[in-house]
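Dig into this one:

. . .
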Amino acid sequence: MNGIPVWAQAGFWGLVSGGALVIGAGVAYFVPVGQRIIAAIMAFGSGVLISALAFELMDEAYRTGGFTSTAIGFLGGAAVYTLANWELSRRGAKHRKRSGKQQPSEQEDSGSGMAIAVGSILDGIPESIVIGLSMLHGGAVSFVAVIAIFLSNIPEGLSSAAGMKKAGRSAGYIFGLWCGIAVICGLASLIGYVIFRGFPAYVVAGTTAIAAGAILAMLVDTMIPEAFEQAHDFAGLITVAGFLAAFALSKLGG
């Protein structure tokens, strides 16, 4: 992408990774996918993200900022995400990633549609910021991070959209939400690059660790429960396969 400003590239790659949410939502809406298959895909995506945050995010944060800023950021990101998710769960967004009939309809829980939308945005922003941060060193994107986030976003959109459809949400709501989040992912990636390119290494490291902590908390709170409930006999094995796939990708990319 020679000749294109780096900030524009950051936004583009954030949009690409966020676009996987729309792909997943489209599959869920138009193709009858069984819940066990969705759960298996969720397990694989969880393994991919766990590997990416361990070998890409945390390792990079530690090498550039040391243990203290990494640890503070990691715990802080998890704490902030958990508090925000707890509040949104109280407002009807607790099961936003579930593919069954757990999600409430607007008639059952007024305001849950907005809470689900905000919660979905909350889930996507940390991942997208990471893409922008990865371009601070030499202006080249981390393709491992982009591919890992893209692969994990497909099951997120797939499972969540399946649950939204069963809760009676309209096609306009479902696709408007995920298309909007894809755009927000692009903006978050752009902002991650533009805002932090002038900051010292320890601040960037702390921010990367914050994103990693938020991502891990999101996995445990929203993705892994769906994976375990429907594919519990094989969820662990499938998650390990996803982890290994991302690990291999990181080593080949390195």
Q: What stands out?
A: The helical segments are 6-30, 35-93, 112-134, 143-166, 171-196, 201-231, 235-253.
